[in-house]
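User: Fold this; tokens only.

Assistant: Input:
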Amino acid sequence: MKHAYFSLLVITMLLAAVARADDGWTRMFDGKSLAGWKSNEEVPGCFTVEDGKLKVSGGRAHIFYVGPDGKASFKNFEFKAKVMTTPGGNSGIYFHTEFLEKGWPAKGFECQVNSTHKDPKKTGGLYAIQDVMNNAPSKDNEWCDYSIKVEGKHVVVKINGKVTADWTEPADWQPPKNMPGRRIAEGTFCLQGHDPKSITFYKDIMVRRLP
């Protein structure tokens, strides 16, 4: 009887482990290489791997998630990552975007990463749409949990589990001036290198598709 109980317990634990492994999340960064990502090399060497972290430094450049087949694209999704800024660092996480050889991505939305950079728009804001002004919910040299969820026209951004932006695109939406691509659509993700003095780190980058 004890043997049967033990066997049942082991089976239950194995099934639970399988369920956790098959929860729909895809690891986007393996902690060892930039496999699945494509940099526009506007500043060569801006994106490197350091001790299991994706380091962003050196100037303006963007690295786009292309996935194993080079065709990654998402509409409804949950995204999560651990993010750490350093003093004066500025970066961003774009979604619904597409590869661009140089310049700021024209398509999609930027979720701001900035604890102490002079830009008053801080971590957790939907840049130029619903900004977090002046007081950042993140701290330099400390990891924060960064979450982005898009369902239909609804976007929710959370930092350490707290909602920092909650926005629904109106039916008559007019994007900000000079940002015509700020529309809910479909596309991939990218990480931003902002300026020569900015250094930021990312790890545990994950995505899960939603219906």
